[in-house]
Specification:
It is elongated, with a radius of gyration of 46 Å. The strands form three sheets. A four-stranded antiparallel beta sheet has the order 1-4-5-8, covered by helices on one side. It has a two-stranded antiparallel ribbon with strand order 2-3. The protein has a two-stranded antiparallel ribbon with strand order 6-7. The chain has helices at about 1-15, 65-135, 140-175, 200-205, 210-230, 290-295, 315-380, 385-420; strands at about 20-30, 35, 45, 50-65, 240-250, 255-270, 275-285, 300-305. It is an alpha+beta fold. α2 (about 65-135) packs antiparallel against α8 (about 385-420) and α5 packs antiparallel against α7 (about 315-380).
């Protein structure tokens, strides 16, 4: 997207440069053999002739139906569109990184819970081993607790593997190498289930005027509207001012340096029969110098050219039709972006409400599971319940902790998404 911005900036500069005159220089050095007319002396030449030409030419469009102006406006709008595309990409990356970051934090919470479960099982196993050695407990209880400890350690290993995978995913989103060190600062996250969630219509009314994907589509539409106006300029006449200066040199051009009388020559007779004589001369010719010829052959030209379109095989008409289609596509894309944004916001709010209610329910379930486990642990230690009941209560607590953590982070992320649509930056304080 950054490279697209550079490309569009270059196109904009090209559009702006089209309003300036162009200036081109030319030079030639030629040799000719055989009969020809020398362009600088207008004499027939049959020998080898050297000639040179030099000049500058320029032209500028005075009027072409405001095509250049509309092209500039189209390129300006196109540049703004790709700039907002860049912002859209940044937002998408930010949301992906935020989701991946929260997933890492969730797995960290699950690891802590799994470690606590291992500790509980190990403590109970140590206690039961002592009771078995004292003959106060059944060896089967020890075996069951050993099996439970193995299951808890397996769960801990799985959570640790999940942590490595979620870290890898986060690194990949951040374009980091898999073996590159990643240090995460865990923020103080508070999931307030009492906060008021803005209505979807309220969030959309703000997001419609702020989200870069909408701005990009709006400027894309403007660009095509200006491009349509530029295409319609083909119906208008164009007026061009042209001018040039130039000079040249010919090796055939000579001048008389001196004349010498060499005698007389009979050229006819009078009526009485007398001879008619004329003097004969010998001219000394020299080539005209290069600089002198350039000065003598210096020429200038200025002209106006008017081009009036009469029939161009419907090319302009077809171009206008294509531009109208492109503008209509841009209008539909803008409407599609708006509808997509509205649907995403509606889904985000519905998800946030559902996540809040589920988090509240799981938080209450965790409190109940904690109390139930404390009661089951005391009963088991007092010998009032068997190991199956204890493990069942323990597993219920582990599942409740996992669900409470998962729904908390899910709720936090979804509320952050709603805040993001309201223009608040993604992040956590603390």
């Amino acid at each position: 997207n950054e490279l697209s911005i550079e490309a569009n900036e270059s196109q904009l500069q090209s559009s702006k440069a089209n309003v300036f005159p162009n200036v081109n220089g030319f030079a030639s050095h030629n040799y000719n053999w055989g009969q020809r007319i020398d362009p600088f002396t207008n004499l027939f030449a049959t020998t080898r002739v050297q000639s040179n030409s030099f000049g500058l030419s320029s032209n500028v469009t005075l009027f072409n139906g405001l095509q250049n102006y509309q092209n500039i406006k189209s390129q300006e709008a196109g540049l703004e569109s790709v700039k907002y595309d860049l912002e859209t990409q940044k937002n998408n990356i930010a949301l992906s990184v935020s989701a991946a970051f929260l997933q890492v934090l969730l797995v960290e919470e699950l690891i802590i819970s799994a470690e606590e479960q291992v500790t509980i099982s190990k403590n109970q196993l140590d206690r039961v081993k002592k009771l078995v050695e004292a003959g106060a407990s059944n060896i089967g209880v020890q075996y069951e607790l050993e099996a439970q400890l193995s299951r808890d350690r397996s769960t801990l290993t799985q959570r640790q593997n999940d942590y490595q995978l979620t870290q890898l995913q986060l690194k990949q989103f951040m374009m980091m190498l898999a073996d590159e060190a990643l240090s995460l600062v865990k923020p103080d996250i508070e999931a307030d289930s009492t906060i008021r969630l803005e209505k979807a219509a309220t969030v959309y009314s703000y997001a419609e005027g702020a989200m870069p994907e909408i701005k990009s589509a709006e400027f894309s539409l403007l660009s095509w509207e200006k491009q349509l106006q530029a295409t319609k300029s083909g119906y208008y006449p164009s007026l061009t001012l042209s001018g040039s200066i130039g000079s040249g040199y010919s090796g055939l051009r000579t001048t008389v340096e001196s004349v010498t009388q060499t005698g007389t020559q009979e050229i006819g007779y009078t009526a009485s029969g007398e001879s008619v004589l004329t003097s004969t001369f010998d001219a000394n010719l020299v080539k005209v110098p290069f600089g002198t010829q350039l000065n003598d052959n210096f020429n200038q030209f200025v002209g106006l050219s008017l081009s009036v379109p009469i029939f161009n095989r419907y090319s302009v008409k077809n171009q206008v039709k294509q531009a109208e289609v492109n503008r209509t596509i841009a209008e539909l894309q803008l409407e599609q972006e708006k509808q997509g944004l509205r649907q995403r916001i509606e889904s985000a709010r519905t998800d946030a409400v559902a996540a809040r209610e589920l988090y509240k329910a799981n938080r209450e379930a965790l409190k109940s599971a904690q109390k139930a486990f404390e009661f089951a642990e005391k009963r088991f230690e007092a010998g009032a319940s068997n190991v199956l009941e204890f493990n069942n209560s323990k597993n219920n607590l582990r599942q409740a902790e996992a669900e409470a953590s998962r729904t908390m982070y899910d709720y936090v992320f979804k509320t952050k998404v709603l805040d993001f649509y309201m223009g608040k930056p993604l992040g956590f304080e603390g």
